[in-house]
Request: fold
Amino acid sequence: MHKGFFKTAALLGAFSVALGAFAAHTLSSNISEQAVTIFETAVRYQFYHAIALMITSLVWKEYRNKWIAAAGTCFIIGIIFFSGSLYILTYKTAVISNGFKWAGPLTPFGGLFFIAGWACLFAGCRNKKIQS
Reply:
């Protein structure tokens, strides 16, 4: 098990549940439906990839190689860019009308990191040869 990935996945998973509850019980009554949808997308993808990161941490035991390490790193960066930018866009929509224009272009980069993470996970599980 990759302890760092596992601990990070646990924190990101807990944070996803907390943010999801916040969206359902508080946020939905205070902002537009469009902003809630953006926020819920961020939470959903954060949770999916927290689970992917946890799986990656467990796969590390059997397939310890640079591809598995890269997969975990890509999932973390993807969460930061994809979900993080959507959280910022929700804030922008809810609270301010101008600013944070730089956040929108980060979302697709986060998506690319998610795709790269899955591709690295595939590449890392092709054989059991132990590498560092």
